[in-house]
Amino acid sequence: MKNLYVIGGQQRQQRPLLADSDAWYEYQKGIILHVVPETGAIEQCVEYISPPDSCAAENPQVLFKSGTVVGNQLYACTQTEVLIYRLPDFTQAGYISLPCFNDVHHVRPTASGTLLVANSGLDMVLELTPDGEIVQEWNTLGEAVWERFSRTIDYRKGVNTKPHRSHPNYIFTVGDEIWATRFQQKDALCLTNPERRIPIGIERVHDGVLHEGRLYFTTVNGSIVIVDPVRLHIEEVVDLTNMHEPDTLLGWCRSILIDGDKVWIGFSHIRPTKIRENIAWVMRGFRSVLPTRIACYDLAKRQCIVEVDLQAHGLDAVFSIFPGHEGEVSQ
Fold it and tell me: Which of 139, 142, 307, 321 is found 20 to 30 A from 178 (Cα to Cα)?
């Protein structure tokens, strides 16, 4: 692809790996970059800070999580907001922030014009109208939606709900079915038919992209899992670590863009967390640690063919990669 949009955030400060910190707030800006892999040109399209009424008063965590592009509209989300941008000029075309939003991880539109939101902090997925009216709620553990939480609390104001028991972090559809990946269960669950489930189990899961009749998932330790969405059967596991030098820590693997036999993958440098089991796979004696970047892999040849360093351009976490707008190529 000639050019790409990369979505994520800028970290507030660096901390030692595995720092035992109570801080939930690590990021200070949402960032969208325009990247031209052939030339290495990178420019900033959006730098975003949440308004005070939609986030914590002190040290709010602000970054873009996973989004969706449909036509000329980018559906993006921060921890506590849903934003819609028109492409390619990134003018804001919509905005929603609800008191129940906490650690929002993904937003995508439906064919009927509603929005699906992965509200990870409350272990739920919401369906909203463009005006922010809730029309459907799913608890991703099969429990009563508000059993553990309160409708009267403003969860945008720095309320820490960790550890999350499910942590739904990505939504996708297969036909009329609505699915969500569940980080803690290492699987994907059909919300509209909970008997249908895809157990992945290799490591904690992110993404869930349907492409030409196959589902593509990423695992945080660097694998692509390819699944038949009809039989719910894993067809192939591609271990990206095998395409790099031994003992190389690729980073937190998340986001995938498929381009024929090639895939673009996002890697974020390992961030601190006090929930150590989430990154137990890090403790394997890696000697080379790579920066936040995107990388292109030729799946047919099993080779990493391009890597683009984004950390040098102010991006510390990658959540989504999209094709750039046709005709928009930086010099």
Answer: 321
